Structures are given as structure tokens and as C-alpha cells.
């Protein structure tokens, strides 16, 4: 079924958000999709897919993040989950990191048009974290677990906790990371699990921290 607004798609799947936030995220969708005609920023180009994937992932992540945290979204692409998180959690200090220049420029333009107090950095995450510290670092769909942990390995003093949104293959990814010796000094736990509405796909949010 095709929906003409984000509000309709959210209501159909019983996803509740304040009306002002829904309108703001709907505006984000339209800006994102306009840019998507020039650049490959997202495959979620209808309201239903955006609602059941991007909004649901963002809300599951939001439940885990402490009030007032400084948050870095690495490999943000078109801005998910960072931009919806900035709209639904205005108490957070959100920054976005994207290594591809054209994507970084696009999401920076989107943030300006949405009038969000969000910083956008055209950098690799590992370079940025060499200079800055964050309470929470988040990533979705960026790379396999072992590769993300390789990037983060020198920078755990800059990361309070790392949250990774993953699908049903996360156990295989954890096994690969262990095989590569990347888990020796880290604690990994499943912080949340939930289904994607309509499809029933299984998702998890993994929390990774440095062993004390």
C-alpha cells in the first residue's frame, strides 16, 4: 500500500510520535529523496519503508541513549539514524560523520534546510575520533562488525559506548570479530532486539564498550 504522508504510514503501523516531530521528519524525507535523485543516499524511498525501517531503528536506538549525550553517527550517508534522532531527541548533541564528500555535502544541506543544530564532518570516523570524544557513537549498515572494530580499535578512549544496528547475521559477525582477535579487550552485549513491522525481520542493537 502506498501512503501519501509519513503520518499515515506511522499510524498504519501504530508508531507514535508527536505531530510536530512527524511533520519535521516528513520534511526530512522530502529533502532526502530530492537529493537521492542526484546521489545514492537511500533505498528507502517511500513513506512506509522509511517508517518501518528508519523510524523504527531510530526509536529503538533512542531508548538506549542517555539524556544530553554527545552522539556521533558514523558513515551517516543520507543522515539515518542521526537526523531523525536529532528531531526526536532535541536534548542530544548530534554530529554526523561521512567520508564521501558528495554525501557529506548533501546531508549538510539537508541539516541546514531542516534548521537542526547538527554538525556534519567530511572525514573518516577514525580520523575524527583521533581528535574528538563522544559519549555515544552509532552506526547502521556501514560495515561488518570486524571492520568497524578495526576502525575503532585505536580510539576507545574517545568512545563512551558504541551502538551498532544489525540484522539477523550479527552472531556470525561476532564470530568473525572474535576470530580476528578484535574482542579481547571489549565487552559486547545485545542491548535491544526488535522486529521490523510488516516484514518481521529480526534486528538487534549491539553495545560495545572497552573493558575496564
Please, could you describe this protein's structure?
With 212 residues, this protein is of the alpha/beta class. It has one domain: Vaccinia Virus protein VP39 (Rossmann fold). Helices cover 40% and strands 22% of the residues. The chain has helices spanning 6-12, 19-36, 47-62, 82-88, 101-114, 125-129, 145-152, 170-179, and strands spanning 70-74, 93-97, 119-121, 134-140, 159-166, 186-195, 202-210. Strands 3-2-1-4-5-7-6 form a seven-stranded mixed sheet. Strand 6 and strand 7 (202-210) form a beta hairpin. Helix 2 packs antiparallel against helix 5. The longest helix has 18 residues, at 19-36. It is globular. The protein starts with 5 loop residues before the first helix and ends with a strand.
